[in-house]
Write a structure and sequence with these properties.
With 135 residues, the protein is mainly α. The protein has six helices and two strands, in the order αααββααα.
Length: 135
């Protein structure tokens, strides 16, 4: 499993919003400048996060984004599942229909166990935890 730049940048944005959080909306340009990420690329990430109600966005003068979740309760796993489309370590786990060979696959328990460990760990880390990390 490889986390894409979209997932990594989404986490950076969420931590940035949590650190600069207030009732005011933060312009996307300010976020992009602080994080040194393309504003255009951030727009697509913010659309995903906004659609899932993790952030609120307002267009126009005085607009921007603000966090719509408690940093103590918003997990890294939640953000990554939204931006990555899932966290399965193998492709056959990530499909709605599953695998044609699931009933005879001797490695499926391994992948299920790995998936459980990954999800448990990522769900145990909050945005607040990331804010406490030293760069």
């Amino acid at each position: 499993m490889m986390i894409s730049s979209r997932g990594r940048y989404a986490l950076r944005v969420m931590v940035d919003l949590a650190e600069h959080g207030s009732e005011a909306y933060i312009p996307l340009r300010d976020i992009a400048d602080r994080l040194q990420i393309s504003q255009k690329y951030l727009e697509s990430i913010m659309a995903l996060l906004s659609k899932e109600n993790l952030v609120d966005g307002v267009h126009g003068k005085g607009g921007g984004y603000r966090l719509n979740c408690d940093p103590n309760k918003c997990s890294v796993g939640t953000v990554l599942r939204i931006t990555e489309g899932g966290l399965s370590p193998v492709s056959c786990q990530g499909t709605a229909s599953g695998c044609d060979r699931a009933d005879v696959c001797r490695t499926l328990p391994l992948w299920n166990g790995l998936s459980a460990v990954i999800n448990q760990y990522l769900d145990s880390v909050s945005l607040s935890d990331l804010m406490q990390q030293s760069p």
